Amino acid sequence: LPNARHDLLKRQALADQLSLNEEDLVREGAKLLGYPRAGSAISMLMLEAIRYAQWKGRITLAPNGNFTLTK
Known about the structure:
Radius of gyration: 11 Å
Helix content: 55-70%
């Protein structure tokens, strides 16, 4: 799946939860894609999507270590 779709899923997970740490964001993103758990390949895709969303300025890493949607 393209990074943009993964980005959208990350944003949905954050919108649902308000803020998530990286591990939880990977897990929630995998669930939104329909995977019951995040294996190594899915985790790598999710981490790439997190970096992409950060690069695009759509999510921010807060001082507490959780990601939040950029306002």
